[in-house]
Amino acid sequence: MERQTSEEVKKNILRVKSSIQVGRLLALQGHAFRGHDESIESTNRGNFIEHLQFLADNNEEIDSVVLDNAPPNAKYISPEIQKQILHVLAEKVRTHIFEEVGDSKFSIIVDEASDESNHEQMAIVLRFIDAKGLIQERFFDIVHVEDTTSKTLYSAIRSALSFYKFPIQNLRGQGYDGLVACMVSGMDCRHYF
Q1: Per DSSP, what are the bridge partners of residue 113?
Q2: Name one Pfam family in it (predicted).
């Protein structure tokens, strides 16, 4: 029984590693994960599953443990698993960016927009000078906000920077698109609509 458990653990580790490898590749390439029809009958089950199938087709060890050869409760391909993989990868990237910025002074560039479901969101880009003296810009985060009032945007920016432990006192510049700049300044912004 102990040997069987050990083998199952190894198979689960290989399943998870395979899903993470596919997630890393899709994220690195900026490709969508999901498809319109991910059912077994579909001719194109979405990038995540299709890439995992490609990996399995080219590696017998992986093929023996993923997709149809995985237990129904341990496939590691659900949308929730895909989101968790992306979340972990995003946190690793943000940690790397934080380390890259270090104690340097930095600026932020902020833009807001509505997503497909009409929810407001704000993109944050960090601009800083790296250890080699080169100007760098890094996309840092998308923050969902309730509205685009200056108070809400200020609070969301401050919260995001504080959460990732960026010292506010090192913030030296801010850039916004016209609407966000107008709203943050508290001006009458009706001419944008």
Answers
A1: 121
A2: DUF4371
Q: To which residue do tokens 């801010």 refer?
A: 174
* pTM of the complete model beyond 0.90: no
CB 152 within 8 A of CB 109: no
Task: Render pLDDT for 81-104 as a digit per residue (tens, 0 to 9).
Answer: 999 999 999 999 999 999 999 888
Compute the distance between CA of residue 50 and CA of residue 58 in angstroms, rounded to an integer: 12
Rounded CA-CA distance 147/130 in Å is 34
- Tell which phi-psi region holds residue 102, choosing left (phi > 0), alpha (psi between -120 and 50) or beta: left
Query: What tokens does 88 get?
Result: 């972990």
Containing 121, the helix (H) or strand (E) segment is strand 120-129
Segment 59-70 mean pLDDT: 94
